């Protein structure tokens, strides 16, 4: 192509070369032959292709309406001796190479065609292409100038008229069949929706109608019916693609049952649908952009839907499994549509095949939906009759019937429910979603989750309690008991059961809940409820700036002595009296609680002045001092009072309680029966205890707690019979800390369990080593103290069992020492635990015998093998009755079949006296202070050498 095109009136010339038109070719592709001028001009001058005589001519062509147009130039040659009649065809829409993001949605391509010579081409009527009849004389070379409506020409072909007519007829028959199938399918699914009434059919029918509308426009029938308005065709083609996207989303949402109150799926689907609907508005502004976004959204829905379908299929969801093949075919169709749109697939059959494939996909989806909807139909109908019979029986029994038709999403209940609640007879008969308006807000998620579980699991029973609001605004409690009914397709078709009014039962439970946060003896709030009120008071003060809270802690002095000397009944009477006296001093805004056995707490918000608060505390202290009569006795009570006023903006309820406890403890340290107000100078005293607690936790982690052993001597031969294992704390900065300082802290914080288990395990391991190393006729034993928390802890038996199994000790050689007052706190429980421990092979020693208040009747039931006499009975104190008491204790121990160990043997005379009284063992500084395991091993080695 070597000719030139001269620029006139804003136009320019192109190089041309005539294309030979064969007589035996049905269609000649001119798409890549025509030269298109990409800038608009109102006229163009063209140098024609050389004729048979080699002469190049010039022609000028003006636009039909003198407006700027795009121009295309091509030349045709008829070398034969016969006149040729051909049809120049430029399709208005071609899917091949139409693009994805801003697709070509169709337009008029060629306005007119002007030849350089011969008969002017005539436009022929066509609903889907620009068609011009071209006549070529024999031996003629004709240059054609096409006035174009757009600069893009998807396809340009030169057809034999008969061949083009046959092609059109063939495609028209195919399109009619495809469109007929799509229309019948849409109509059939719509009719099924009217008959069946489930949500699946309108969703599927909407998709079928969207496909039909898309094909109606794509096949050109729109132009036949509504005329040739290309801007409207683009708009409607964009509308059809957006509708298809929205219909796909609605179908996926409805078919997979994602609308069963799953709020996340609902929000996601609704947001996507809103975006899709918004594309309709965008289409009015630019249909191509709207169509591009619609195609992207369609792809996202298809791939995300396939991932969701696969996920649900692996979970055994029957609907998802049935949809997998059809959805996979949809993804294959999308891949073909993408390849065709970008030009990777360029074939005349691509576009018709994609249209037929789309109908096939909708047809398969329709079959899947019908298979699911009708698979359990006969069972469903049969079960309705069966359920009616059961309903009659339930009606006779007086229970409320509850029936949920899952497919139609309708709930039916007996009229008794509405009568109970005072509602309209049809109030609760309808979709399950409408129940949410009557349910208590706290029960709505439970109700939704229960029904979701029924649908998802397709088995099991429903047994839930929830509240329904009556006409008067009050809620009543109901228990729902039901069972899902599964069709032959494995899906739940109904859920039937009964409702039972359990309001009376729940009120009883609420009374129990009241008792859980109130003290059983006094009826006052307990610690949990009181702290909640303190939190509320602090929050109100921060929000409103009024009602600064003050916390008062009141502890009865020497209350334990009252219980021990007069009895627990007297102690309870004292507590009730104190509670009544304190209640009379309370104002409506203030709160009173019993937080421990003999400790009361008062929250004051009615008084703000320090003087008024101090006067209130003194008044409380005074009224408690009034004697209380119990029988013929008068008991005088005093109280230690600690007060803390809320001051810091960042202070919490726990901080306020801690400050009040610090003030209370300071009042008790000063002798009690006094009022102390918290001040920052008191905090270091409490912080020392807190610091010691933190250090103790660290010591347990870093192995700073050591086990020392104090020898226990057999008095008959002065040999070492065993040791008492004692805990010692080697603090890195404070040195050796006495057990009297850290054991009480461990008891308060609960670390005593971990500490006791550590001592028990280490002592057992060391004892096992000594028993293997030193063979005695009577094995060595080691005594380990057990605290009250360890005894009351249910894991003590398992801990001892584990220690004994790991060390393989001689039975009875690991002795557990328990104090007399400890086992008497709960004698019945202690008896059972001691029996279990003795059965495991542990020895039992009763420590500090004679210092408690035990009953000898219980003492006979305890399984002790050793008693330990407190050193207060051993060491001389000038009391002439001491030897008598000591001899009596030893005799009592022997009478009960126990061996006796005496603590506090400091001199040889103490040792001799104990031996003469029949005491078997002695322990004291006379025979050795607590020592390390290495030092104790040396003593054993030396003793073994002497006896060998």
TrEMBL record:
The chain crosses the membrane at residues 173-195, 207-226, 238-256, 268-285, 291-314, 321-341, 353-374. Residues 462-514 form the PAC domain. Pfam families: EAL, GGDEF, PAS_3. Residues 386-458 form the PAS domain. Residues 547-680 form the GGDEF domain. Gene3D superfamilies: 3.30.70.270, EAL domain, PAS domain. SMART domains: EAL, GGDEF, PAC, PAS. Residues 689-944 form the EAL domain. Keywords: Membrane, Transmembrane, Transmembrane helix. InterPro entries: Biofilm_reg_signaling (IPR052155), EAL_dom (IPR001633), EAL_sf (IPR035919), GGDEF_dom (IPR000160), Nucleotide_cyclase (IPR029787), PAC (IPR001610), PAS (IPR000014), PAS-assoc_C (IPR000700). This is Diguanylate cyclase.
